Amino acid sequence: MKEPQDQREQTSIPKHKIGRAASLAGAGVRVGVNYLKYYGKKKLTGKDEKDRFHELTAAETYSTFSKLKGGPLKLAQMLSMDRNLIPEQYVDEFSKAQYSAPPLSFPLVVNTFVKDVGKKPGELFDSFTHKAVAGASIGQVHRAEKDGKSYAVKVQYPGVADSLKSDLAIVKPIAMKLFQLDAKAIEPYLKEVEARLLEETDYELELRRSVELAKSSEELPSTRFPAYFPELSSKRILSMEWVEGDLLDVYANSTASQEEKTRIAQTLWDFYHHQIHGLRLFHADPHPGNFKVHEGELWVLDFGCVKELSNEFYRTYFQLLNPDVFRDEEKLKPVLYEVGLLLNSDSPHEVRKLMQVFQESIELLARPFVHGQFDFGDEAYFKELADFGERTRKDEELQQLNTSRGNADALYLNRTYFGLYNLVGSLGATVKTRMPDFSVFTA
What CA–CA distance (Å, rounded) separates 178 from 42? Predict the structure, then answer.
């Protein structure tokens, strides 16, 4: 989470389904109106002003999502991390959701404390900031003091958990319209998003996972985790040690030497390699607001979004990254059928088309692993990723094949890898990468 930038505080959040539905429906209507204006003007003048349409629609959609918090805002945050999925105007606007959503007023925070723990913040702590020091999609953070110690106290927005399912049901057609997504294609993924978001609203679960994952990762060099305090926490309040230092994006733009930035980038890479390939339970929210750098160490601040990989999914998914597999069509094809990216109903022509697309996308994802080290400071790689996403988005034949494919478990893993790539890229670093041990997949 990141410090809010002098935004006007919200004094209320629509909590009831009717009010939230009306807000989201209003956003949908505005999208529709913008579409009519765009196509009408295009037909009359012959000018294609799609960029302007996306700019207006992205701003209006984010404005609604940011006021509602919760599922809509978290969805915006997730979408902003993948430039391959949506037009850049939405990435730029939705990226605000990573850490600069409008904060809630203090009376709403007090109300959450009274309802959850039966006390006001001032009765639990010696001091407690009235204004949030950081804010995002599910909750906001206040700084507190008690007995000479500093705490970061995360307070959940009211009504977030209760409204998630209904919010996502209403957001679905808006996303389909905006990004030309197929209903069947996105249904399994929306269910996966819903499951993870519901977990994120359970701060008691987050506390347990934070302690467990920190313990299982404590041997990693230069990687630190804040202490957590169950006695000052509840289902909607989470208290942890206050951590000094610079958020990762601030650090990336600092005057620290490239050698130091590369060391931090390697620490970040090793942290994810350990969790994905060692624990198969990993921090699935790799945006800069969740990491700080202090005195040469990387601090991991938030385990709200965590994804577990089954052995079967892990085995199948990482077979795809084996160069011996993805470079050989005869070896690749049966794995694509196994993971559901190719379907028995596909015609020979469709299989050829999809094989070409999947082979290219897998090569792009796997490229950092292939040679044992990779220069994430190479902007050409990220341009290639963006160009591939844009090209496949505009491919009308491919859109016709955009039915329900693949495994929804891959959603957060892909998101995590591309988020990690972007974080390491922001540090301009060349890091040592390690392939999984592919022998375990054939044993």
Answer: 18
Tens of pLDDT along 270-315? 999 999 999 999 999 898 889 999 999 999 998 988 999 999 999 8
- Asked whether the predicted pLDDT for residue 35 surpasses 70, the reply is no
> Which residues neighbour 19 within 8 Å (Cβ) at sequence distance 6 or greater?
none
Tell me how far CA of residue 332 lies from CA of 81, 247, 316, 335, in angstroms. Answer: 28, 40, 11, 5
Dist CA 134 CA 127 (whole Å): 17
Residue 13 has pLDDT above 50, yes or no: no
pTM of the model: 0.79
Q: With beta carbons less than 8 A apart as the criterion, state whether 61 and 177 touch.
A: no
H or E element at residue 260: helix 258-273
Element (H, E) at 312: helix 311-319
pLDDT at residue 24 in the model: 39
Exposed, middle or buried: residue 123 (CB in 10 Å: 0-12, 13-18, 19+)? Answer: exposed
Task: Flag whether pLDDT at 76 surpasses 90.
Answer: no
- Other C-beta atoms within 10 Å of 15: how many? 15
The DSSP H or E segment spanning 292 is: strand 291-294
Buried b (16+ CB within 10 A) or exposed e, 147-168: eeeebbbbbbbbbbbebbebbb
* Cα 3 from Cα 91, distance rounded (Å): 20
CA distance between the termini of the chain: 43
Residue 384 dihedral angles phi and psi, to the nearest 5°: -65, -40
Residue count of the chain, please give it. 443
pLDDT of residue 29: 35
Listed in sequence order, the residues at least 6 apart from 264 whose beta carbon sits closer than 8 Å to its beta carbon are: 222, 251, 293, 296, 298, 427, 429
User: What tens digit of pLDDT does each residue of 220-255 get?
Assistant: 999 999 999 999 999 999 999 999 999 999 999 999
Q: Cα separations (Å) of 433 from 195, 366, 424, 439?
A: 31, 11, 12, 18
Q: Judge contact between 436 and 272, C-beta under 8 A.
A: no
Residues 294 and 245: beta-carbon distance below 8 Å: yes
In single-letter form, the type of residue at position 195 comes to A
Rounded distance between C-alpha atoms, residue 180 and residue 378, angstroms: 31
Q: How many helices (H) and strands (E) in the chain?
A: 19, 13
